[in-house]
Amino acid sequence: MSDLSTVIEVAGALSAAGGLGYAKARSPRVFWSLVGAPVARVRFSVTYRATMDVCGLTVQPSRLRAFMVRNVARQEVQRMTGYDVLRRVKMPRRLPRNTTAGPLVVPVALREDGTAFVRDYQKVPHALTVGANQSGKSMYQRNLISQLAKLPVGLIGIDCKRGVEQRGYAPRLSALAITPDEADGLLEALIGEMEERFDLLSSHGVPDMWGLPAKLRPVPLVVLVDEVAELFLVAAKKDEERRDRMVMRMIRLAQMARAVGIFLEVCGQRFGSDLGKGATALRAQLTGRVVHRVNDKQTAEMALGDIAPEAVFAATTIPPDRPGVAVAGDSSGGWSRIRTPAMTPGQAVAVCHEFAHVTPHLAALAPFRPAVSAAPDPGSPLLKSRPATG
Which of 11, 12, 54, 80 has its CA 20 to 30 A from that of 92? Predict the structure, then answer.
């Protein structure tokens, strides 16, 4: 009798398996409803949390949720299911203390893990930012400038497109060059300022400006280059000598100026070796890299290929309908996707007017101090210019 039961059980199992195989082949909808969907649901429930955690698609739970789980449910706090925080950027209200430690740290964008992407000029003194038109590169610059404007630093603008991007920031700029000739003179003045600062360090026997007493410490300077290609490209052979001077001065600043508190933010639509002599040498000194959507793969490779080759693909697949999304990397080899919050030019200009009183006056750069427009008046579109005062 027991043998008969065994035979019946085996026959039943084989019949069920055969029926399922027949249903899968002949009637997949029935098979999915009876077997596929329940099995997938169980598998999904069991493995989903671990899969999301391994793939880095989780975010920290809120403090309220963590408190409720620990004290009410008496359970271990798990990391919450992740979502695309870059689709609608909302910067965190507070930054971790270890992130904001330092006098030259500014939040600029949001990382895909929900934390803030910051520019720390003591850790990453110089940076290269590239992006095509409508990629969000200008918005990144506005967020950066509006945050820097609140700090006791000098902002130096180089915008050889006649100042169309940076002229509105004039109240907060200690110097501004809007033509290649002016940029040549301004870079020469910055080299002179750098050498004077090195003399100061040498006389006090300290390796960098942070070792000086606070009353003797010179103000940090951030040099904002809007379109770097305008410094490299020339229209006539007679301009090549000026180009070579400017590029060499940029490279000198990038190699040496960190110790004396002069930092570079170099931006452009594209950046490649075809810009000319010195492009690769300059790039090697710009350790911070931010790549928005670009028009050619070479620009992404030039910006990221030497520090994080695997990030090149991520940069070249940024969709055109997501302006502000970028890939940020540095010399450590790490990289992440970021997105800057929306900021209009008017908002950035308003911040520069609000903090105009913070602008330091530097004697060496006085000839390049821009004329300052009156504060924007919502009732009048016309602005009258007046000379800047020391």
Answer: 54
